[in-house]
Give the backbone structure.
Amino acid sequence: MENSLPIDDFLTACKTRVLLDVRSPGEYAQGRIPGALSFPLFTDEERAQVGTFYKQKGREAAMELGLEFVGPKMAAFVRQARELAPGRLLALHCWRGGQRSGSMAWLFRQSGFDVVTLQGGYKTYRQHVLERINAPQFHRLIVVGGRTGTGKTKILHALRTLGEQIIDLERLANHKGSAFGSIGEAPQPKVEQFENDLYEVLSRIDPKRRVWIENESRSIGRVFIPDGFWKKMKASTLLNIEIPDEERIQNLLTDYTATDKSDLKAAFLKIDSKLGGQHLKEALEALEHDDFAAAARIALHYYDKTYQYGLDTNPSPDIRQLKFNHGNSEEIARFLVETI
C-alpha cells in the first residue's frame, strides 16, 4: 500500500502530522496511540453489522454494506479532516492496517491530503508497545520508596524540576496506589491505555541517564505494571526514605482534607477487615468530628505494617535507608541528586 509505513517510521511521521484513529469509538476507548484523534469510519453498531455480514454472507456482501454506511459520510469526513489538519498532513491507522485505513487514505488523497498509514495497524503498535515496556533499556533505574505520607510523588516532581528524568506511574494510572488512591483523581484508564501511555513516556527517556520512579505495588488501583517493567523495578536500587510521622500526617492532610468526607469513609470501609472493627469505628468517629489527623494516624498504623512487610520481602539487591528530620521534598530531592 502506498505510503504504508513500519511502526518506527510511522511514529516518527506522527510528530509532524495529525494522527487519526479510524477504528470504531469502542475500539478507541479501549486503548489508543497517545495523541490520536478518534475519527471512526463506522459507529460501533455499524462495525458489528459489517462483521456479522462478513461471517454470514462473505466479503463482498460485507463490503457493500460498508459502502452503504460510508457513502453518505464521505463529504463530511473530508470537511472534518480539513478542519483538523489545515496543513493537509495526515497519519491514519485502523486495527490491522487494512480496509478501513486504506479506504480513508484513498479518500483523503483524492481530496488533496498527504497521507501515511501504519503497516499492521494498531495491532502492530500494541506488539511494539509490549515489547518495549517489558524490556526497558535503562542505564540506571532508581526506585524512591517510603511509608505512606512520605511525599514520594512530591520528591519525584522536585527531582524533575532539578533536571532529572522521572516516571510518574501514579499520574499515568490516575491513582495514588491505596484504598484512598482514587480520591480526587480522574477515572482510571484501561490497562491497555496505561501501557500505551507508559510507552509514550519511555520513548522520550534517554536510556543513558538515570531514571527515578516511585516504589509501587504491582497493581495501582485497577491497572497493573507490566511484568517485565515490574521485574526491572524489583532489580533496581531502592531508596527507603523516612521522614517524621507528623510530617507524614501533614502530607496526608494536604492531599485529602479537601475531599468529601463520604469518600474518606468509603475508603476506610474498604480496609475494614484489615483495620479491625474498633479501629474502623474510631476512624469513622474521627472523621465525623473533623479530626482528620486522628483518622490519618489510624490509617498509617495499618499501612505502615503493610509497607514494612513489602520492604522486608523486597528482592532489590541494593536497599538504602535514608532518614531525614524534615519532610521538605525539594531539600530531599537535592540531597538525592548530589549524593546518590
